[in-house]
Design a protein that fits this description.
The chain has about 500 residues and is α+β, with helices and mostly antiparallel strands. It is built from 16 helices and 21 strands. The strands form 5 sheets. The chain has a 7-stranded mixed β-sheet. Strands 7-2-1-11-20-19 form a 6-stranded mixed β-sheet. Strand 4 (about 80-85) and strand 5 form a beta hairpin. Helix 1 runs parallel beside helix 6 (about 165-175), helix 1 (about 15-25) runs parallel beside helix 9 (about 345-360) and helix 4 (about 110-115) crosses helix 14. It is globular and about 75 Å long.
């Protein structure tokens, strides 16, 4: 008896819907398993997630996307990391780079050697030992040079800034070419089966019934299927992440784009600056308890470096996750599954990760409870680890200049984060656990950048004299600087390989 899923129905478009549709079109035979996406042209999408992390490369590769074409079609730029300004204090900045610091020496992570010598005035900050950081601050970029041997140029890791609306349109073309059927309509009603409570069909505003075996909820914060119909429930994390609003406003640009995102802490919350080929994305994430909408718009306007290209676009949310991301025969993907503020550009990755998990646990019509439970348990753990990494930015700070920052400094944090911080404070140790998204480099960059001090370092570093450690540090810094010196500017790289047809692309977003 064939129990294979025959009809997949995706409700909602945007990045979540079209990423899901494109992935399913790639891995399914859409002649045997139909994929239908329902979206209304009258309903806008959030589309503020314009910055990504390196894992997006894998997603694009799986879809067979040509990277230069993708960059041109989405007006993208390259991203080597995130610069955090005024987070530790109001006169401090540091970089969270995509790439390692230094190199492992004698099986000991590099930063332990740096910790031993950090009191020496000749030793620069930790992020200066990162090729990504040095290149980003000089506005340089190139793809990894596979024939560069042990040079840092062979290990360049990067992500993208891109126009999320253009990305969704680009993926729509791929998905429809792969057999996905799109219906332009609104869903008026969700019909449930009497015997088991599964979703049986959705009724469109035209009266048409669309039935399916597996339903994907990409309807954004409202969670039309996962919450509106199935009453799944929500786990609130706002006690640790009190920012619950954002206002976004793009502006014109007349400068070469920088290959990094800027996150600038404010007296409450933070602003972002994301450079694209055709504009700059700007936004302000803030807590409504401390900042009014009018105050938020006023602050954001003061940060614009060009003419505003749109009216303020407001977003409101509760930070947290659905109690089940997969409930009965419905999987929530994107904002319908939950939301963690975009401080570390994880929004599109969480979509990607849910799609990957869904493909790994792709069901039959029997919908195994153990598959569903394992899927939910793994995604919950993944999301909690991301949550804890974001909390770290707020908890560890010297700022006490506002009620907001005093609250953040004083709040009790989840036990996983407490243990992670204590481990680093003890002897500078950083371990990646449970296949969490952020690796040792990321945790190290933020803990050290935010001012979490380590009382010690790996004892085996003391088998080397101070003079030997300084010599090695100096050599590594010289190799990094020499490597960056041969890299082209990001603008030159884009001009040579993937410059967008700006009038055409800008017209496509209107």
């Amino acid at each position: 008896m064939n129990n294979s899923i025959e009809r997949v129905v995706i409700v909602g478009g945007g990045s979540a819907g079209w990423m899901t549709a494109a992935a399913l079109a790639k891995v399914l035979d859409t002649k045997q398993t139909t994929v239908t996406l329902i979206e209304s042209g009258e309903i806008g999408t959030v589309s503020v997630g314009e910055a990504t992390i390196p894992q997006i490369q894998l997603f694009n590769q799986i879809l067979g996307i040509d990277e230069d074409e993708f960059v041109r079609e989405t007006c993208a730029t390259f991203k080597l990391g995130i610069e955090f300004q005024n987070w530790r204090n109001t006169n401090h900045r540091y970089m969270h780079p995509f790439g390692v610091h230094g190199t492992v020496m004698d099986a000991i992570p590099f930063h332990h050697f740096w910790l031993k010598m950090q009191g020496n005035t000749s030793v620069p900050p930790l992020d200066e030992y990162s090729l990504a950081t040095v290149a980003a601050r000089q506005g340089k970029f190139m793809r990894p040079q596979r024939n560069a041997g042990n040079s840092p140029l062979s290990q360049i890791n990067y992500a993208f800034h891109f126009d999320a609306t253009l990305y969704a349109k680009y993926l729509r073309k791929l998905a429809e070419r792969g057999g996905v059927r799109r219906i332009d309509a609104k869903v008026d009603e969700v019909l449930l089966r009497a015997d088991n409570g599964h979703i049986d069909a959705v009724r469109l505003d035209s009266g048409e019934l669309i039935d399916g075996d597996l339903f994907i909820d990409c309807t954004g914060f409202k969670g039309l299927l996962i919450e509106g119909a199935l009453k799944t429930g929500f786990e609130d994390w706002s006690e640790w992440l009190p920012c619950d609003r954002a206002v976004a406003m793009p502006c014109t640009t007349n400068e070469e784009p920088k290959p990094y995102t800027v996150s600038e802490a404010q007296s409450a919350g933070w602003t972002w600056r994301i450079p694209l080929q055709h504009r700059i994305g700007n936004g302000y994430v803030y807590p409504s308890k401390f900042v009014s909408d009018d105050e938020a718009v006023g602050l954001l306007r003061s940060k614009l470096t060009g003419d505003a290209l749109a009216e303020p676009n407001f977003l409101r949310w509760i930070t947290g996750t659905r109690k089940k991301i997969w409930n009965k025969n419905c999987v929530a993907i994107g904002l319908s599954a939950g939301f963690i503020e975009p401080l570390e550009s994880t929004g599109l990755h969480m979509i990607q990760a849910t799609i990957a998990k869904l493909l790994g646990f792709f069901p039959s019509k029997e919908f195994s409870d153990v598959d569903r439970d394992t899927f939910n348990r793994q995604l919950k753990l993944d999301n909690e680890r991301i949550r804890d990494f974001i909390i770290l930015h707020y908890k560890v700070t010297d700022r006490d200049d506002s009620e907001f920052w005093r609250y953040c400094k004083g709040m009790k944090v989840p036990s996983f984060l407490e243990e992670k911080m204590a481990l680093y404070q003890s002897n500078g140790r950083v371990y990646r656990q449970d296949q969490e998204l952020f690796n040792e480099t990321s945790w190290l960059a933020v803990m050290q950048g935010q001012g979490l001090a380590s009382r010690g370092y790996h004892p085996l570093v003391n088998t080397h004299t101070d003079e030997e450690v300084l010599r090695r540090l100096s050599h590594i810094k010289r190799v990094i600087d020499d490597s960056v010196s041969v890299m082209p500017s990001q603008q030159r790289f884009i001009d040579d390989h993937c410059k967008a047809n700006l009038p055409e692309r800008i017209a496509a977003t209107v």
